[in-house]
Specification:
- By secondary structure, this protein is of the alpha/beta class.
- The chain has three domains: 82 residues, Winged helix-like DNA-binding domain superfamily/Winged helix DNA-binding domain (Arc Repressor Mutant, subunit A), CATH 1.10.10.10; 104 residues, 3-Layer(aba) Sandwich (D-Maltodextrin-Binding Protein, domain 2), CATH 3.40.190; 97 residues, 3-Layer(aba) Sandwich (D-Maltodextrin-Binding Protein, domain 2), CATH 3.40.190.
- It has ten helices and 13 strands.
- Strands 7, 8, 9, 10, 11 and 12 form a six-stranded mixed β-sheet that branches. Strands 4-3-5-13-6 form a five-stranded mixed β-sheet, covered by helices on one side.
- β1 and β2 form a beta hairpin.
- α2 crosses α3.
- The longest helix is centred in the N-terminal third of the chain and has 27 residues.
- The N and C termini lie far apart (64 Å).
Length: 296
């Protein structure tokens, strides 16, 4: 048996469906099904119960997945150790974060990194989920949660402030100070990411009933505001840098997010990881300074 024979089973266990596993692996659902079937045949065990709405592990499947995860962690540890021992700069680093961080902070600052370090290649992953740094699903991550556990190291970054924004076309001749939020068309993120600060703010301000549209995408929210659809709570990295948008005041204090730069402890001294980490810190610092300048 090869290690690769276990990968589809692990993907099914984590995605809880064959379709979700296929998306994670970048292959077809048929391929995942066929490879899990082959694994079951080779072991002589039924590992997965197929259901119309997903897949669950059998008792034997749970035991095999636990053993497979042990193998996976050992392989990942070997990979991290090799990366730490190499003298050359890693050819590619994967950075995972939310849509807001990738599009609002990292992507605009990417030119400076590539100019300063022409040997480095980066992959920016938009992923709201907490990817595994132990398995090197990503080498670095910017998360809105302080890292836990001894295997991860984190550094607090300059905060992401939020504010209310409307387009000039939406306001028309109305002055920002004359806006009564309860009477306006409000737009918001939905609760697909949990009860995050953006969702709770509308509840605390007593404005939930005025929300006319919800979405799971910050970029969709921004596009709707730019098009003059309504008013939304947006990260200042978008609102402050868009001359077509106007910042509005409210009686309830606006929330902020505290991002953390996280990597695995084994990789913290790898030259490429150190260089990219510093670039991320600097990108957040510059973003915060621009925000302060615009607000002054």
């Amino acid at each position: 048996m090869e290690w690769s024979d276990l990968v589809p089973l692990l993907a099914v266990a984590r995605a809880k469906s064959f379709g979700g596993a296929a998306r994670r692996l970048g292959v077809s659902t048929t391929t995942v099904t066929r490879r899990v079937d082959a694994l079951e045949a080779s072991l002589g065990l039924r590992l997965v119960d197929r259901q119309t709405d997903g897949a669950t592990l059998t008792e034997h499947g749970v035991q095999i997945v636990k053993l497979a995860e042990d193998v996976e962690e050992r392989a990942a540890a070997l990979d991290r150790a090799a990366a730490a021992l190499r003298d050359d700069v890693a050819p590619r680093l994967r950075i995972s974060s939310t849509e807001t961080v990738v599009t609002g902070v990292l992507a605009p600052a990417l030119g400076l990194l590539l100019e300063t370090h022409p040997e480095i290649r980066v992959e920016l992953q938009v992923n709201p989920e907490l990817v595994s740094l132990a398995r090197r699903d990503a080498d670095l991550a910017v998360r809105m949660l302080k890292p836990e556990g001894n295997s991860l190291v984190g550094r607090r970054l300059a905060g992401i402030e939020l504010g209310l924004y409307a387009s000039r076309s939406y306001l028309g001749r109305k002055r920002p100070e004359d806006v009564v939020l309860a009477d306006e068309c409000l737009l918001s993120l939905n609760d697909s990411f949990g009860r995050i600060a953006e969702v709770l703010w509308f509840e605390n301000a007593g404005l939930t009933s005025a929300i006319r549209m919800r979405t799971s995408s910050t970029q969709a929210l921004l596009a709707a505001v730019r098009a003059g659809v309504g008013i939304a709570l947006l990260p200042d990295v978008f609102g402050n840098n868009d001359p077509s948008l106007v910042a509005l005041d409210a009686d309830t204090a606006f929330p902020s997010r505290t991002p953390w730069l996280v990597t695995h402890r084994d990789l913290r001294r790898v030259p490429a990881v150190k260089a990219v980490s510093q670039w991320i810190v600097d990108a957040f610092d510059r973003s915060a300074r621009r925000r302060t300048g615009r607000r002054a």
